[in-house]
From TrEMBL:
Species for this entry: Rhodopseudomonas palustris
Domain Beta-ketoacyl-[acyl-carrier-protein] synthase III C-terminal: 282-369
Stored Pfam families: ACP_syn_III (PF08545), ACP_syn_III_C (PF08541)
Residue span(s) of domain Beta-ketoacyl-[acyl-carrier-protein] synthase III N-terminal: 150-229
This protein's name: Beta-ketoacyl-ACP synthase III
Biological processes, Gene Ontology terms: fatty acid biosynthetic process; secondary metabolite biosynthetic process
Keywords: Acyltransferase, Transferase
Any one GO molecular function term: 3-oxoacyl-[acyl-carrier-protein] synthase activity
UniProt cross-references to InterPro entries, sorted A to Z: ACP_syn_III_C, ACP_syn_III_N, Thiolase-like
Amino acid sequence: MRPAVIAATGLYTPPDSVSNAELVEAFNTYVANFNAAHADAIAAGEIQPLAPSSSEFIEKASGIKSRYVVAKPGIIDPAIMRPVIPERPNEEISILAEIALKAAEEALERWGKPREKIGAVLCACSNMQRAYPAMAIEVQNALGLGGFAFDMNVACSSATFGLKTAADFVGGGSVDAVLMVNPEICSGHLNFRDRDSHFIFGDVATAAIVERADDADGGWDILGTRLKTQFSNNIRNNSGFLNRAAPEGRDNVDKLFVQQGRKVFKEVVPMVSDMIIDHARELGLDPHALKRLWLHQANINMNEIIGRKVLGRDPTPEENVIILDDYANTSSAGSIIAFHKTSDDLAQGDLGLICSFGAGYSAGTVFVQKR
Ligand code: CO8
């Protein structure tokens, strides 16, 4: 296999941010209205009153303080509580491809080479615009690229699965350079009326260019990649093309994101910690010597436990990068945002880890070394 390099990354952050306080205010207004409208049924014990949310709980349980979104007004309107995103004509680029393109443009600019060198575009993310045509092909078309492009979905682990796919294409000689994009409009699949999860996600897009090491001027050598999946029902989204065929109709809440957050926490933390340590040892690397962890950004407490297990001590904030306070969980993009924002300052030879985990369950580890 030819060695491959992460040569450049890009990030698109939507301009609007929603604080916990704004989200909780909308949620609690919805709750008060619901309870008032159902006061008789609640008094008769026929239905349970809804409980309010709280900013303190959200920050303590998850570490999240705010999130960026592509369509703020509807999300914080208690009468709507979802992003309002008008459909576009088929001739126009889709919103997900559009934000992917913005991240891709930054990655291409930082790369500094002719874009025609890109032989493949992968769109690796959780939140798909549609079944087909692929968002990746829209991005390929908008950039005027040849070669081939396709979408792939491994939920929150899509980006590490995408990096491995890109490294394998480059390594096997299929192409010399791959553009991976990770557009995530998670707010579209989030039930903003669900107290347990209304605060979890945000919107963003990231991009990364993987090229053959012989062509690369700088960047990060990919030392090894490992993927893992293990079936779990604890994170689900049952939205799909057969919803319209079901006699129950298509507006059930399980067609949005649902999870058993406690179970996910308990099961995924040991799975991922062991995977990182085993993979490092197999590569002949000392996990304690890692200079930086760019972990999936779902929950600060998960990342602190994983960081402690991997490094064998309490990591410093510089070593275990947290961006979820600002961005919330952005699914596949989280570890790439962290990498994009905090990789330039490391020195030649420094070791780091990009790691994802999420629905499926799925997990991916990508060990990198600064060139
Ligand atoms: N405000 C106030 N109190 C609350 C709230 C709230 N909003 N929500 C729950 N509570 C209360 C509960 O009622 C409970 O009260 P009691 O103890 O009296 O029963 C108490 O707080 C504790 O509740 P939990 O046990 O649920 O709280 P946790 O401490 O477990 O924290 C978390 C909840 C933050 C969800 C946490 O469990 C967690 O982060 N788990 C891991 C989640 C995770 O990593 N999931 C991965 C999902 S990402 C993925 O792969 C899917 C990708 C697809 C993206 C699609 C886009 C939408």
